[in-house]
């Protein structure tokens, strides 16, 4: 069994850092790099790309809404064309930095509120999927299963890598529980280990209501801003490898 571990990386700004990016980069197989709108800056982006190249980790763009103060988690009203241009700008910036560092961008993974918009709105999903395909038809779109962006990406011939979020609670409808609610973010290594083992063994997750639901996913996500993210990612890798699995990047998983 091959499965990915991915994380949203480089989500500091200037002298501020969210986590130990270097340690986390040694654990994961795919890095979703913040492109300067919700977090990150050119220096951080360059550092992430060069570190990923050194560690043999694939790099993807992690575009978000232009909301540094709110970390990209606040909704900003914009139409599909505006959202498209904000996304394209960020992907292009990371592509240039990656080329300068001798690395390449392989995927796109949407951040927070921007992700919610393309997951739920079919028109926005169609517009951004077409734009991604225009930039590079070989890009892989990272997404939760059953989102509008999954349908839209497949419609234009893009590959999809579906995600299981090991550090976020699900409800019985398969949606993420709002971060405003208690126990929506999972920080216990024991709880993450149990969730990952359950997912690997049966393809299910226990919801916040206590029910068991199916999760179709090929890569496991740990958010770098979750407290203890390095230890949580290490736990995920340990559970995979102890179960006889192999951690692999997205391009390998989808070959």
TrEMBL record:
Pfam families: LamB_YcsF. GO terms for molecular function: 5-oxoprolinase (ATP-hydrolyzing) activity; ATP binding. It catalyses: 5-oxo-L-proline + ATP + 2 H2O = L-glutamate + ADP + phosphate + H(+). The keyword Nucleotide-binding applies. Keywords: ATP-binding, Hydrolase, Nucleotide-binding. GO terms for biological process: carbohydrate metabolic process. Its EC number is 3.5.2.9. It comes from the Bacteria. Forms a complex composed of PxpA, PxpB and PxpC. NCBIfam families: PRK05406.1-3, PRK05406.1-5. Belongs to the LamB/PxpA family. Catalyzes the cleavage of 5-oxoproline to form L-glutamate coupled to the hydrolysis of ATP to ADP and inorganic phosphate. This is 5-oxoprolinase subunit A. The gene is pxpA.
């Amino acid at each position: 069994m091959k499965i990915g571990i991915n994380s949203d990386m480089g989500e500091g700004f200037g002298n501020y850092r969210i986590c130990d990016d270097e340690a986390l980069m040694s654990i994961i197989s795919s890095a979703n790099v913040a492109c300067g709108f919700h977090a990150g800056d050119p220096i951080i982006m360059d550092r992430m790309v060069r570190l990923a190249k050194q560690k043999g980790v694939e790099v993807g763009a992690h575009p978000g809404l232009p909301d540094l103060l709110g970390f990209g988690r606040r909704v900003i009203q914009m139409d599909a064309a505006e959202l498209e241009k904000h996304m394209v700008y960020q992907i292009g910036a990371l592509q240039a930095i990656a080329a300068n560092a001798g690395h390449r961008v392989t995927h796109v993974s949407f951040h927070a509120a921007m992700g919610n918009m393309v997951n739920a709105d079919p028109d926005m999903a169609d517009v951004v999927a077409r734009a991604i395909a225009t930039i590079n038809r070989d890009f892989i779109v990272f997404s939760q299963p059953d989102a509008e962006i999954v349908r839209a990406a497949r419609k234009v011939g893009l590959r999809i890598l579906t995600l299981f979020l090991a550090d976020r609670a699900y409800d019985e409808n398969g949606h993420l529980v709002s971060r405003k609610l208690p126990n929506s973010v999972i920080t216990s290594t024991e709880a993450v280990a149990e969730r990952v083992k359950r997912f690997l063994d049966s393809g299910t997750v226990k919801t916040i209501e206590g029910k068991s639901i199916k999760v179709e996913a090929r890569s496991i996500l740990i958010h770098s801003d979750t407290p203890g993210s390095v230890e949580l990612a290490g736990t995920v890798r340990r559970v995979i490898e102890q179960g006889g699995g192999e951690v692999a990047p997205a391009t390998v998983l989808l070959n």
